[in-house]
């Protein structure tokens, strides 16, 4: 079972004025729930765990866009550092896919996978899927089902966040950074209708901002 750092439901987080938060977002956020430094430390440990389990094989890292791009880049930097500074190193190549399942702050029943035709190139490969957040799990289950048709040799999933929610299908990734409360989180490339990707920390979005940026 994957180990993770749990953020409790009653976790109060941190006051915004303790951190550098873009001024244009100051009135849109409740609190900082995971500071950037903690994200980076946890990501470094995930990289070590992944290399321990998959380090004997060529790894194809598959980034789930758009939200996963920041975590993907930082995770690969740590894996690259391990490759350069240890006796064990493996080739690492990258690919990208886009999955969309949100409208405003609601996870929809419809999961759209963009770029799936290119997954055939992953046949016989060792694949690491890199995701920003798993909520219901249906998005990842859809992607895994699609990927299985291409017959990869191995598939592992790493998600920075897993949300505790009654809507969960029960799916859990192989590697988890943080287990978080059932709140709408933004920052570190997590967005609300494309806003807040330029926020370094992971924060809780307030209700006024949901209306302000609603499409």
TrEMBL record:
GO terms for molecular function: guanine phosphoribosyltransferase activity; hypoxanthine phosphoribosyltransferase activity; magnesium ion binding; nucleotide binding. Its cofactor is Mg(2+). InterPro entries: HGPRT (IPR050408), Hxn_phspho_trans (IPR005904), PRTase-like (IPR029057), PRTase_dom (IPR000836). It comes from the Eukaryota. The keyword Amino-acid biosynthesis does not apply. This is Hypoxanthine phosphoribosyltransferase. It comes from Anoplopoma fimbria (Sablefish). GO terms for biological process: GMP salvage; guanine salvage; hypoxanthine metabolic process; IMP salvage; purine ribonucleoside salvage.
